[in-house]
Amino acid sequence: MPINIPDALPAKDILESEKIFAIEDKSAHRQRIRPLKIVILNLMPKKIETETQILRLISKSALQVDIDFMMVKNHVSKNTSQDHLVKFYTYFEKLKNNYYDGMIITGAPVEHLEYEDVDYWSELEEIMEWSKTHVYSTLHICWGAQAGLYYHYGIQKHILPEKVFGIFPEQLVDEYDFLTNGFDEIHYTPHSRHTAIDEEAVKKVKCLSILSKNDEIGSNIIVTKDYRQIFILGHFEYGKETLKDEYFRDLKANKPIHIPFNYFPDDDPEKEPILKWRSHANLLYRNWLNYVYQLTPFEIEEIGKIKEPIGTGSREDHGYAKTFTK
Question: Can you tell me which residues bind substrate (predicted)?
Fold first, then answer.
């Protein structure tokens, strides 16, 4: 079934050229079914590119999905036009009375900063706390995953001596897990990050499960046992040339960068990269949406009445005391 996106969203033309069926608000409102409601908190600088990548994966589901785009108020985007933001994005304060079947929190290029030094950290804390009572399942990506693990469980990150950059083979820990159902025992995931999480701290949190990992770079997919919180350290949503563009961008800026691992054939940047992760990316998002569809309440406001899921708990339960006030 189609995804329902805002009228005239730039990603629509791109998706249609790829034979992905997307309908606009006017058409969707005539249908007599209950679509899934997904909100995307897009923290990436190039918002149109990230929108397209994520919508491409969501669209592979047979379910109709309504999409809202959320933005934080305490940060001014320099790489996306104000006109686009005004037209398609809504501040959290105007969405916080809504309920959603699912939420996606993207990565952000702020990993060199301490969490509390990020200019929108206080607002992001509020959003992540709100998600526990207003969202059935939240999917966190890359820095968003690190931030979520830190906020909910106090799991720290650390700077790596060398950037994790390339396409890495990940091994399934449990091949029969719901979220990775249908995955091969080895799957590939793009990574582009300067930081890593405290793996030992993850293992000590009883409600967290590691679903896939690489022995050299650590965990890739981490979930709570009820799938209410999902943390993905890599970038399943990346397009074929995303790492290529990043590599040449950093070269041009004279930043320290190595050829992405396992990406260019023969490690030759002049050769076209091979897309090795698309089928698993599609399957991951399809499994997630199917899970949400199966278990989220039909009357979406009922999400707020669900007892606090085992996938969250209090920060104090995990040895990280912090008072949160709305």
Answer: 163, 192, 249
Query: Which one of the listed residues 51, 126, 170, 237 is annotated catalytic?
Result: 237
pLDDT digits (tens, 9 = 90+) for 275-304: 999 999 999 999 999 899 888 888 999 998
Whole-prediction pTM value?
Answer: 0.86
**Containing domain of residue 45, as a range?**
3-238+278-317
The C-alpha atoms of residue 196 and residue 194 are separated, in whole angstroms, by 7
Same domain for 189 and 270? no
To the question of whether residue 163 is assigned a binding role by annotation, the answer is yes
Contacts 24+ apart (CB under 8 A), 242-249: 242/53, 242/190, 243/165, 243/166, 243/167, 243/190, 243/192, 243/273, 244/269, 244/273, 246/165, 246/192, 247/165
What is the rounded average pLDDT of the residues 146-172? Answer: 97
Question: Annotated catalytic residue: which of 152, 235, 280, 318?
Answer: 235
